[in-house]
Amino acid sequence: MRNLSPIEVEEFAQELRSKQLLALSFHLPVTYKWLEVTRPQILREFQDISTFSRLTEGDAAAKQLVTFVRECRDFYDDIPKSLPDVAQLEFLLMSARKEQENRARRPVAEASAPPPFSWDSLYWRPSSTSVARFSVDAFAILLGKKKLTDESGPTWVVLAPAASGRVPTVLRITAPAYHLLEAMKEPVSGRHLREHAQQHGLNVSAPALQALLTTLHRSGVIDSHYVKETDAEA
Fold first, then answer.
1. If DSSP codes are grouped into helix, strand and coil, which group holds residue 49?
2. I need a labelling partner for 196 at 20 to 30 A (CA). Which of 42, 148, 212, 218 fits?
3. For position 2, what pLDDT does the model report?
4. What phi, psi does 155 have (nearest 5°)?
5. pLDDT tens profile 132-180
6. Is 128 in contact with 161 (CB distance < 8 Å)?
7. Could you give the strand order of the β-sheet that contains 155-160, starting from the edge strand earlier in sequence?
8. In 10 A of CB 102, how many CB atoms?
């Protein structure tokens, strides 16, 4: 195999960069479009500092761009406050869709009825479920219901691959629900979550917590293992 000339090497590198940018425009459409139209130099700077190869996964490049946009927000005053959050939300949605595609290739287990609720049951947030806090309503912006310049209050969301269909499950949640989901990275009993809420002043009643866990489980956002309740007074 002959050695490539410097010109051929540069042409190959440019082609590779073009393909990577095309993938980014697909994975992060709103973020990429704003940068392409308003701040193309940021995309050029991103290309200059990023190291891509033919083996670079699209999600790896997208994750790098999300980080880069958040860093650029500190240096460019005209970047909307919402853009880093929108970029992060687009990345989380892309990740959820990718997991859905992977699941579609696996044998489908027969659906079973949801287990009854028990304070002794274990609940946990699987790695495919993400929770995020945004400084603005990034989801409404992504849906086109609000503009990138919107500076509404903070919102909290949970995302997970959907059991069927192409669109991942995205739920707006309250701040207390966000903190409870953060405490569910490992299996934890409903009873312990109730104590956690009380200790951290989350203002979540026992009935509200039961309803939250039940809804999240039925939505496929969290997993659980049923354990018969031993405390009749719970």
1. helix
2. 218
3. 58
4. -135, 160
5. 999 999 999 999 999 998 888 899 999 999 977 678 999 999 999 999 9
6. yes
7. 130-134, 155-160, 169-173
8. 11
The domain limits of the chain are 1-79, 111-234
Query: For residue 233, what pLDDT is reported?
Result: 46
Picking from 190, 188, 210, the residue whose alpha carbon sits closest to that of residue 119 is: 190
pTM above 0.70, yes or no: yes
Looking at the DSSP bridge assignments, the partners of residue 134 are 155
Tokens 């999600």 sit on residue: 59
Instruction: Provide the greatest CA pair distance for the chain.
Output: 79
| Helix H or strand E encompassing 155 | strand 155-160
3-state secondary structure (DSSP) of residue 164:
coil
CA distances from 220 to 47, 100, 128, 180 (A): 38, 12, 10, 16
Whole-number pLDDT of residue 9: 55
Task: Tell me if 95 sits within 8 A of 164, measured CB to CB.
Answer: no
CA 74 to chain centroid, in Å, comes to 22
Q: Hey, what amino acid is at 146?
A: K
Strand partners, 173: 156
Task: Give CA torsion, residues 95, 98, 104, 109, to 10 deg.
Answer: -20
Answer whether CATH 3.40.50.720 is correct for domain 111-234: no
Query: Does residue 83 contact residue 151 with C-beta atoms inside 8 Å?
Result: no
- The two structure tokens encoding residue 187: 């299996």
Phi, psi of 110 (to 5 degrees): -65, 130
